[in-house]
Specification:
Elements: H1 12-20, H2 24-56, H3 62-106, H4 110-114, H5 118-160, H6 162-209, H7 211-216, H8 220-272, H9 278-319, E1 340-348, E2 355-364, E3 368-373, H10 380-387, E4 395-400, E5 403-404, H11 410-415, E6 417-420, E7 429-430, H12 431-435, H13 444-453, H14 457-462, E8 470-471, H15 480-493, E9 498-502, H16 510-526, E10 528-532, H17 536-540, E11 544-549, E12 552-557, H18 559-565, H19 567-575
Parallel strand pairs: 3-10, 3-11, 6-9, 9-10
Antiparallel strand pairs: 1-2, 1-4, 4-5, 7-8, 11-12
Helix pairs in contact: 1-9, 2-3, 2-5, 2-9, 3-5, 5-6, 5-9, 6-8, 6-9, 8-9, 13-15, 15-16, 18-19
């Protein structure tokens, strides 16, 4: 399977070969067995001729009939084994393509995934990879064996009667040209069909992501119509493939019939004149029909090839996207609370996007609670995204422990951070799996400590199977406050040196808010905590508050200092944090 990225100019068939390279022995074995099967098939008319000749010459039929039977049996068995070997190899190709695609996908940069539609990505991993299987089982090998049959039949026919062969070949050339005209249309339609299936996945994904909103907005019918339009497009493209394939098929069939009539007429005359034996004419006609199947096979194989090539291009588009660079050398980074600093950081999400950070500078010492506040869109969550190195700033420096985070090895940097996103998701699985998600090695004592710290013991006691209870879509749905504390517990189990907590904007009830404040205060005693704060309780108990506005840092201070000195903060406190004025 291809390992390297950025090779847009490589021809798709080369990419296809790269997938099959590790499976060459199986392809060879399966191919040879299939050919042997075809060869047995090819011998059939000749063997039939020996039976007819023996009959005509009053010789024993035992030998020729046994030969014919053996050819049928051997051909069937060997062909079946060859087919199995190829199917098996096809599954292997699909498996390795899926594996490499998934591992590539999870290592993509966040900025790349931002631009992709999840549903389309899903369809590339599931349905496009499936098309690779058919390329080798029904594509390449069928085509090779069809060619073999064609050539074999033509050679055998040449031995029997050159003149009749000329007639046959004339018809074949006409068919070949017709099929050649149709092929590019099949190719175009199959690419469009796959794009349409991907698009349908993307539309469906959008609906499922916002399922409740769709229902609450009464938008079911409209969304059904959107999915329907995408499905219709996929169907139309599929029908176009079927249309052109059958045009190619019927042309081959009509040509064979025409050739049959011509050969029967001319051949009959030649038999009458004694230039040709009856048995040879029969064998010739059998071979003529043998040509029909391989031509159909060629058309079918070519269609599969086109599907596969289109799929390989779509798969490759993902494989060519840049992945994260791990960088640096593994280093012992300790477990002490970390200090961080932003210096003149300038950042935008893309070259054509507006500036989000326009010279952000602040410093946070190790240990204690720092609150980031500011109007919506000021760039607070972006501070976290940059610290996690989901994106890279265009200029300026971000340091942790005084060292530029770009010099850190990425896994080391992230291991030092605990990250709780706004509306942090609960993953499908047990509560224990959710807690251990970021720290697989954590022990029972660690779990108990974190559960007590995040005030989750009551929840665990209430759940029917405690930590082993399934939560999320397939199990018990947790409340907003519980989800948030589970997310904090998950981040804390990592023993972060810096905890990044993006408070959800949704209002928590008084009990949950008190619990959250206690949790944050306690965690801040042990480690550095940086909170994007939307609540008064978090802001007032912070050691320092960084006020952000329009991509810059406007002021830094304690709640009291900022209330006295900063107008924006006063306004925020009065409105956003519900401070009595
Ligand atoms: N992944 C992204 N791609 C492109 N633009 C983004 C992305 N994330 C955020 N932005 C833009 O960057 C700006 C700052 O967003 P950010 O989420 O950092 O603000 P915020 O201060 O955290 O806001 P809020 O308090 O509403 O969460 C916004 O204008 C937003 O549209």
């Amino acid at each position: 399977m291809p390992e390297t990225a950025s090779s847009p100019e490589i021809a798709p068939w080369r990419l296809l070969l790269a997938y099959v390279r590790p499976h060459r022995p199986a392809l060879l074995l399966g191919g040879v067995l299939s050919l042997v099967g075809s060869f047995a098939g090819l011998a059939m008319p000749l063997l039939a001729k020996t039976v007819i000749d023996a009959f005509g010459e009053h010789r024993s039929l035992v030998g020729p009939v046994l030969g014919l039977t053996a050819a049928v049996l051997v051909g069937a068995v060997v062909g079946a084994v060859g087919r199995y070997v190829l199917e098996r190899m096809g599954e292997g190709v699909v498996f390795s393509a899926r594996r490499s695609l998934v591992s590539r996908m999870l290592r993509l940069r966040v900025s790349e995934v931002d631009r992709l539609k999840p549903g389309d990505l899903l369809s590339r991993v599931t349905s496009d990879t499936t098309l690779l299987r058919a390329v080798f089982t029904e594509g390449v090998v069928e085509m090779v064996s069809a060619l073999f049959m064609l050539v074999g039949a033509v050679v055998a026919m040449a031995f029997m009667d050159g003149f009749l062969l000329l007639i046959t070949l004339g018809v074949l050339v006409v068919v070949g040209s017709l099929v050649g005209l149709v092929m590019p249309r099949i190719q175009r339609a199959s690419t469009q069909a796959q794009v349409a299936v991907g698009e349908m996945g993307a539309v469906l994904d959008r609906v499922l992501q916002a399922f409740r909103t769709v229902k609450a907005s009464g938008a079911e019918d409209r969304e059904i119509a959107t999915v329907d339009a995408a499905a219709r497009e996929a169907r139309d493209r599929g029908v176009a493939v079927a249309w052109w394939t059958s045009i190619a098929g019927i042309s081959a069939w009509v040509a064979a019939q025409l050739a049959f009539v011509a050969v029967l007429g001319v051949g009959g005359a030649r038999v009458a004149s004694g230039a040709l034996e009856v048995s040879s004419l029969i064998a010739f006609l059998l071979y003529l029909f043998y040509l029909v199947a391989p031509i159909g096979q060629l058309v079918q194989g070519f269609t599969q090839m086109q599907n596969g090539l289109a799929a390989v291009k779509r798969i490759r588009e993902i494989e060519d996207l840049p992945t994260e660079e791990i960088g640096g050398q593994a280093a012992e980074t300790g477990t002490a609370p970390a200090g961080v600093a932003f210096q003149d950081v300038v950042f935008r999400y893309g070259d054509d996007r507006p500036v989000v950070h326009d010279g952000v500078s602040f410093e946070i010492p190790a240990r204690g609670l720092t609150a980031l506040v500011g109007p919506s869109g000021a760039g607070k969550s972006t501070v976290f995204a940059l610290l996690e190195r989901f994106y890279e700033q265009q200029s300026g420096t971000i340091t942790m422990d005084g060292r530029d985070i770009r010099q850190w090895r990425l896994p080391d940097l992230r291991a030092a951070l605990g990250y709780v996103e706004q509306d942090a998701p609960v993953l499908d699985g047990t509560l224990r799996e959710n807690l251990l998600f970021a720290a697989q090695g954590a022990g029972e004592a660690d779990i108990r400590r974190v559960l007590s710290l995040t005030r989750l013991e009551d929840l665990v006691a209430r759940l029917p199977e405690g930590l082993e209870t399934e939560v999320g879509h397939r199990g018990i749905m947790l409340s907003g406050g519980e989800r948030q504390r589970v997310a904090i517990a998950r981040a804390l189990l990592r023993r972060p040196r810096l905890l990044l907590l993006d408070e959800a904007t949704s209002q928590l009830d008084a009990v949950n808010e008190l619990r959250l404040r206690e949790v944050i205060a306690e965690v801040a005693k042990e480690t550095t905590v940086l909170v994007i704060a939307h609540r008064l309780s978090t802001v007032t108990s912070a050691d320092r508050i960084v006020v952000m506005e329009a991509g810059g840092v406007r002021a830094v201070g304690t709640h009291g200092e900022l209330l006295a000195d900063d107008d924006l903060y006063r306004e925020l406190a009065a409105t956003q944090f519900l401070l009595p004025t």
